[in-house]
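We close this part of the discussion by returning to an individual protein. In the encoding step, the backbone of a single protein was reduced to a row of integers, each denoting a local shape. The sequence in question and its structure tokens are set out directly beneath this paragraph.
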Amino acid sequence: MAEQHALPATGREWHLAARPQGWPVPADFALVEAPVRQPGPGEITVRNAYLSVDPYMRGRMASSKSYAAPYELDEPMQGGAVGRVVASQAEGFAEGDYVLHFFGWREYATFDARTAVKVSPDAAPLSTYLGVLGMPGLTAYAGLTRIAEVKPGDVVFVSGAAGAVGGIVGQIAKLKGAARVIGSAGSDDKVELLVKEYGFDAAFNYKNGPVAEQLAKAAPDGIDVYFDNVGGEHLEAAIAAMNLHGRIVVCGMISQYNATEPTPAPRNLAQIIAKRFRMEGLLVGDHYDLQPKFVEEVSAWVRSGELKYRETVTQGIDSALDAFLGMLEGQNVGKMLIKLPE
């Protein structure tokens, strides 16, 4: 058991000050100086190196019950993080070890070591454990392979395709033999990235015209799989383009996260009868049994260069709120991360 070491007296952490109404604003959050405590038995103290911000966090800012507990007001928020152990009272964890855990949005965290997973900075860059080799990567992998059951010859459409999940979805689909992969994104630069770097067969900027028209042009023979990160108009367009016995994986509906009024459902949902397509929601927490297979397969693709990933990194704990709000507005390419100084 490691002995206790000197820790800083305080560290900074982000609290939820008020529950956002519609789009979150800076006044809904507070950056607070908080004591850093020594670990108790079975605990570790971690100095965070990278913090993750993800779309699902917007849902946890509301008080309503969902699949994840709401953030408490005036308490530190939670999120994925990778950091270095600086003090340990837990068997199997030594000072200097790097761990993946869920106590982000802060500089230092002391918590039960059983909730942490050791990671190696030698096997892969630390940031990748929050992105391509982390929760977003597993989301893409599980959604495509288990729920969509993607197979050679499929035509696959991905919305939010330049985001942390979407870019990986499209590339894995190609690696699994999809005949054609189409992505939508919110800027011409992102569209270029999808085709030139990620290897999508076609992509379009949804701001340049109706999604249904652009998708019909990109997929003249229809689509077999739709991986939905956006909802709304995209989902309606995908249903219109869906082939017989198609599959829709509903991962996120970011177009509706900040709505203050109910949004209209896809007006063509009745097509599910004639087309007999299957539509299923995806929560990554249901699929952690795939983790070993996912890491083995995807890390090999990353090392070989077959699977490319992008990260948008901001610097310092002060930048976390801007990173989160920017991610909701689609300012990121790939995974949005905050890097804390060593």
The mean pLDDT is 94. The radius of gyration is 21 Å. Residues 141 and 172 are 7 Å apart (CA to CA). Residues 10-131+310-339 form a domain with the Quinone Oxidoreductase; Chain A, domain 1 fold (CATH 3.90.180.10).
